[in-house]
Amino acid sequence: MLETRLPLYFNRSGATGPAGIFRFETSKPDEAWEMSVAGGEASALKGLSTSPDAVLSATGSDMVLLCAGRAGRAQKIADGSLRIEGDAQKAAALMDVLFQPF
Description:
Helices cover 36% and strands 30% of the residues. The protein is built from 4 helices and 5 strands. It has a 5-stranded mixed β-sheet.
């Protein structure tokens, strides 16, 4: 569900960046998907690239809570529930857009 919703959330936000390929990985359930951001537009990608700009990993329930703005990003990073690999600045800019209450 999130793989199709996150690009919509991004596109509705009016944000222009960050540009890149972002992988989201969840456990419980084990899923992985990617989203591309370019020219202020986000889209879901089919398959996984070999070198995303950043990877965001969490349990499925934590990812839903984060995307709904119902969990604190800093706390989840501090306690290891949310893991970021790759370009941390791009990941932070993306989370600023996506991890908002709605």
